[in-house]
What we know:
Layout: H1 2-38, H2 52-57, H3 60-72, E1 74-75, E2 104-107, E3 125-128, H4 131-142
Antiparallel strand pairs: 1-3, 2-3
Helix pairs in contact: 3-4
Amino acid sequence: MHSDKSYLFKILIMKNILMLSLNLFLLTVLSGQLLAQSKEEIDKRALKYYSNQEIKEMPAYKIKQINYLFTKSFIIPDEMKEKVDPAQIDINQYTRIREYDSQKKVNLINNGTVTSEADAFTEKYIILLSIKEIQQAYKDIEEGKELP
Length: 148
């Protein structure tokens, strides 16, 4: 009789261990899925500037900052909306000509790269946000604030 109780006790312990293991496994799987879902995808134009390993190690806010740079750090004026495809603009090329505290109009050529300031005959252009505006947006993103 004593051995039956011991046997039942062992079975109960094994059942609890199995249930705990199953719960831990499910928790691991679900948390991995949630993490994968919450991981922001980086803008495809940024892929030529960062390695897969760098992207993998980036916190979500950093990816959001990069995406902001490539998608919202410039303005396409109304008169250019039909002529300029924002998805074709490699905004990283503009880093060197941004101004600190004022927006700047820059001319484009067909592939979205910068032309010289003197290239006035180019009909396509965008307005670059200032470095100060981008820094504020980066700060807001890092703090988890929603941007317009």
